[in-house]
């Protein structure tokens, strides 16, 4: 029988005090959709589960003058049904809306998706393309880590064991921007992606002012295709330019062969879908 203490703190301070008491024998649990699978598969055997579900005030999607603020306990379903996310954080909306099933999305959180650090996490590439920063809170205080520096390997991040991911901050961009995410999977529902492609564009007329391209299952951690981004910067939008960006982005990846897809196949899909997501981001930028 699998046995553990189930702790239900109501405040962050209570979370920190439980973490202090149990140390590495405790595991934080938000929606539990990764944690419970890992316990069942005996990948982890915690003595205590510290539930974050009592921290209801960490579930929100807000915007102020400088940034969008997404609480770490925000569920994928909250993002899926948020008009603000759909209109202004479209890539994240695309990603969150495709996680698992509606039952999973109702409980699974964006903080859990990122802290679990699976290379296939459906919100990782969108958040990277949107230039998100993770806000971590621990007993010693708060620190902000740009998401591009957050992942250190499969299932590994810079988060210290006594830190909670409380928020994502995404900079506000004025006018002429759009973003899109493609989840490439074999089935439409309940399948982890073979890979993911997210593109953010800020346009100045027909000229690309800023491009951010983020790819998942492209390397051990989600990846920004920086050379392809630099190639696009300042270029006028055309099919040829996009195709070349796709070729450059694909060369920046180092995918591996796995049951879900061979490395050569992944590279070809990256090459195809970077231009397509850029075109979709452009379409969306025209509405803003
Ligand atoms: C049937 C099924 C289908 C799925 N389909 C998909 C899919 O299509 N795409 C996809 O990306 N994922 C999928 N998943 C995986 C999972 O649902 C997601 O990764 C989900 O977002 C995890 O969120 P959670 O709140 O359930 O995390 P939990 O399982 O509660 O936690 C995951 C990890 O993050 C840590 N953690 C959680 N919240 C915090 C926090 N705020 N601060 C610090 N650490 C934290 C936990 O300690 C744990 O290590 C699927 C899972 C299942 C069971």
Can you walk me through this structure?
- The protein has three domains: 5-51, Uridine Diphospho-n-acetylenolpyruvylglucosamine Reductase, domain 2, CATH 3.30.43; 56-171, Uridine Diphospho-n-acetylenolpyruvylglucosamine Reductase, domain 3 (2-Layer Sandwich); 177-285, CO dehydrogenase flavoprotein, C-terminal domain (Enolase-like, domain 1, 2-Layer Sandwich).
- The chain has helices spanning 12-22, 35-40, 76-80, 83-88, 90-96, 102-107, 110-116, 124-129, 226-232, 239-252, 263-285, and strands at residues 5-7, 26-29, 48-51, 61-63, 67-71, 133-138, 141-146, 151-153, 156-157, 164-171, 177-184, 195-204, 207-216, 223-224.
- Helices cover 34% and strands 26% of the residues.
- The strands form four sheets. It has a five-stranded antiparallel beta sheet, covered by helices on one side. A four-stranded antiparallel beta sheet has the order 11-12-13-14.
- Helix 9 (226-232) packs antiparallel against helix 10 (239-252) and helix 10 (239-252) crosses helix 11 (263-285).
- It has eleven helices and 14 strands.
- With 288 residues, the chain is of the alpha+beta class.
- Residues 27-35, 37, 52, 72, 99-100, 104, 108-109, 111-113, 115-116, 121-122, 164-165, 190, 192 line the site of flavin-adenine dinucleotide.
